[in-house]
Amino acid sequence: MTETSPFQTPAQKQTEREAKRQAVLRAAVRIFNERGFHATLLEDVAISLGISKPTIYHYLGNKEQVLLQCVIHGLEQLIQAADAARQEPGRGIDRLRSYLRRYAEINMDDFGRCVIRTGDEALSEEGRKQFRGLKGEIDHAMRTLIDDAIKDGSIAPCDSKLLAFTLAGALNWPARWFSPEGKQTREEVAQQMVDLLTVGFAPR
Amino acid sequence: MTETSPFQTPAQKQTEREAKRQAVLRAAVRIFNERGFHATLLEDVAISLGISKPTIYHYLGNKEQVLLQCVIHGLEQLIQAADAARQEPGRGIDRLRSYLRRYAEINMDDFGRCVIRTGDEALSEEGRKQFRGLKGEIDHAMRTLIDDAIKDGSIAPCDSKLLAFTLAGALNWPARWFSPEGKQTREEVAQQMVDLLTVGFAPR
């Protein structure tokens, strides 16, 4: 048995650094969601983790930089969900529905909620560009899934841009009203909303 | 012919006061929508009307009070639309669709946009209560229209609360993306979105 070194390897250091960064990000996103960007103090994020404010600066930067990393993380979750959906077998409508469910679930979770609740005006010019760029990718992913489903005849022909906005709007909104303390889980709410949007409210 | 008095009657004064109040409100709502609450300066609202900042205080109060009056005006437009829809003849689904169209149109207009874009955190405790109360009335109105339509069999049985949130979310979202400079009018976008939500995206 080799003796354990008290010194970390570069790989261990990197892993630990990333774990700390993630912990700060998760604490911050919860406080942003609860109070809004303007009312959030990094001091309170630090207190919630039992660390100092300079430690936050060290891992994530200033308040606007912390917010930007929160929304980027949320947007990346959405982009991954779209990539995963595109690779599923089956009809276009099945891939679309699968993405819509994940889209709704993410928007009811911490980072997705932060994406929805963050206005452009909270970010610097530079941050705003990055935020808009990633949002554009997500709009595009939704539209591609819709267009593919129109092509294979599994969804009704329509203006795919307007349908994408309609679906996104409906599934963004839970970021404002969903409560994990409510009767239904994220997954149940997502499933039911997607079903309502699929068949519409006029009897079939 | 009687000589015109240079002095206003109390009724004329009241009308003029209200016209001025409305003009300030409309100038303010546009700047709030463009820049967000925090970045808006009443000074700029005053400049856009060629008046002084104290004149704004005189008609509407401080910045938070101005914002509150903007969102109240938007919410009242929605409540009036619901009242009007409820009085229409025909089936429940027709009244619901009629309300949804107006709901979407209002949310693409100045005061409705301001309602959607205003977070609770911009308002004082007192203002927040009033804002939430009026929002509650609107949720309730949407739900009543849905329940009535389920009762007369003109819409498919479902969880009316979740359907109300789904429809509201879809039709709130244009407050974020609709541009009056685009190819379609408010009325066209509203009509098409309501049609998509009525029949769903799965082929019938």
Commentary on this structure:
The structure is a homodimer of 204-residue chains. Chain A has 204 residues and is mainly α. Chain A contains ten helices and no strands. Chain A is elongated, with a radius of gyration of 20 Å. Chain A starts with 9 loop residues before the first helix and ends in a 5-residue tail after the last helix. The mean pLDDT of chain A is 94. At the A-B interface, helix 8 and helix 10 of A face helix 8 and helix 10 of B.
Reconstruct the topology from this structure.
2 copies of one chain form a homodimer.
Chain A: H1 10-35, H2 42-49, H3 53-60, H4 63-86, H5 92-107, H6 110-117, H7 125-151, H8 160-172, H9 174-177, H10 186-199
Helix pairs in contact in A: 1-2, 1-4, 1-6, 4-5, 4-6, 4-7, 5-7, 5-8, 5-10, 7-8
